[in-house]
TrEMBL record:
This is DHA2 family efflux MFS transporter permease subunit. Its main location: membrane. Pfam families: MFS_1. Gene3D superfamilies: MFS general substrate transporter like domains (1.20.1250.20), Multidrug resistance protein D (1.20.1720.10). It comes from Stutzerimonas zhaodongensis. It is a multi-pass membrane protein.
């Protein structure tokens, strides 16, 4: 791909453009959770079976990340980035005017197509447009809105639902998206690859098909109430697609993700550790607002404000991540942190109507801190051992696994919650279902510690941490 030569004004505006796109994406990922019960009432759905709205977005993002770089090389970064913001904005409008659950899910998919392309293409342009001496500074600036989005998202979503309507959590994207489209057309450099790069279409279909089928199978146990035979069939077909992909990838020149990546032990442990450890943390933003509103009677605004400690705890622990990992090493940090995170998630089973608010806030802030340490250590150990030649492919696979594991976490939580909730259950019965779900999710998260035992105890800290979540 060609390198951009920026004029002074574009060099100043471009980081703001990518940062705003990142903010829109992270805000949308958290603002929805506190609105689910209100959306369920308006759409005549069970609030405990609304996870499809979240899963549709996360899974679509995971599917399209591998294609984002190829699309930017083939069609140009300006066209793809502009189209991404346009699709995200159009999807937001479609979500706002949806009058059925199925229509809302389809609209979320449209929104996710745009969301999947915004950040990878924006990051690629920054990489090509700025000298290496400026890259870390610019990327740090871009990452800041990504930390603000989860901080204000649940609270803003709760207030909008309580004092306006859930439609506004999507409508607020429209003016920002319009400005973003104009700015992208004006300031985004149009970079293309000089050579035609062949895309692994068959591999993309096999890998994507596996993700979709396995997620739908888990979703079928929860929201869709599929017969167990159909769930098992979908699981087996998904596993077969995944096996076919890896067998094929080992025999072609440029696969979507090369199996050779897994020859690096730290990468293999990090990828599988991410997949299983994030099942619990991915389920939390879905489960906690539901627990607070459906089982404990919180208002949407109260539930949103209660979620603030999760994001605050994550931000406060960031400066301590590198010193702690330098002192203790990846292996000790990840084993201990994984067990602690699973225990904290499982201990949410003790929350009930008599739990003091202050204790709940402290509990959530501790989860936010431990969660943030987990993300930082896992992301860094996954990429630290890769060569420069494999770094881009490895980072892309890590991004896919992060989105996939979070969607599987929500699907698993929905399936467990649905399984533990008897038809027509109310009051204490619903609270008991939440408690059992937290115990199971926490236990599943703790199992990932067995994977981190496989790390080299002498492995040292990378030059810089990978904070992206």
């Amino acid at each position: 791909m060609q390198t951009a030569v920026l004029d002074a004004r574009t060099a100043r505006v471009l980081p703001w453009l990518v940062a705003i796109a990142f903010f829109m994406q992270t805000l949308d990922g958290t603002i929805l959770n506190t609105a689910l019960p209100a959306m369920a009432r308006d759409l005549a759905e069970d609030p405990l079976r609304m996870q499809g709205v979240i899963i549709a977005y996360m899974l679509t993002v995971a599917l399209l990340i591998p294609a984002s770089g190829w699309m930017a090389d083939r069609f140009g970064t300006r066209r793809i980035f502009f189209s991404a913001i346009l699709l995200f904005t159009l999807g937001s409008l479609l979500c706002a005017i949806s009058d059925s659950f199925n229509q809302l899910v389809m609209s979320r998919i449209v929104q996710a197509v745009g969301g999947a392309l915004m950040l990878p293409v924006g990051r690629l342009v920054i990489l090509r447009a700025y000298p290496r001496s400026e890259f870390v500074r610019v990327m740090t600036f871009i990452a800041l809105p990504g930390m603000v989005g989860p901080l204000i998202g649940p609270t803003l979503g709760g207030w909008l639902v309580e004092y306006a309507s859930w439609h506004w959590i999507f409508l607020i994207n429209l003016p920002v998206g319009l400005i973003g489209c104009i700015a992208a057309f004006r300031f985004m450099p149009d970079l293309k690859s000089a050579e035609r790069i062949r895309f692994d279409t068959v591999g993309f279909l096999l890998f994507g098909g596996a993700m979709v089928l396995i997620t739908i199978a888990l979703e079928g146990l929860g929201e869709m109430h599929m017969p167990h035979a159909r769930v098992l069939l979908l699981m087996m077909i998904g596993a077969a697609c995944l096996a076919a992909y890896w067998l094929r990838a080992g025999h072609i020149e440029k696969p979507l993700f090369s199996p050779a990546l897994f020859h690096t032990r730290s990468f293999a442990v990090g990828i599988f550790g991410n997949l299983f450890a994030r099942l619990g943390s991915g389920a939390l933003p879905f489960l906690v607002p539901l627990l607070l509103q459906v089982a404990l009677g919180y208002s949407p605004a109260q539930a949103g404000m209660t979620m603030i400690p999760l994001a605050l705890g994550a931000m406060l622990i960031k400066p301590l991540a590198k010193p702690l990992i330098d002192r203790l090493g990846y292996r000790r940090i990840l084993i201990g942190n994984t067990l602690l995170l699973g225990s904290l998630i499982a201990s949410l089973a003790t929350i009930d109507a008599h739990t003091p608010t202050a204790l709940l806030l402290v509990h959530l802030s501790l989860i936010g801190m431990v969660n943030s340490m987990q993300f930082t250590a896992m992301n860094t150990v996954t990429l630290v051992g890769l060569s420069n030649r494999n770094a881009s492919s490895g980072n892309s696979l890590l991004s896919v696994v992060v989105q996939l594991s979070m969607s599987l976490g929500v699907a698993s939580a929905g399936a467990l919650l649905g399984g533990f909730t008897a038809p027509g259950a109310e009051g204490e019965a619903v609270l008991d279902a939440f408690h059992l779900t937290f115990l199971c999710i926490g236990g599943m998260s703790m199992l990932a510690a067995s994977l981190f035992f496989q790390l080299d105890s002498k492995q040292t800290m990378a030059a810089r941490l990978i904070d992206e979540e």
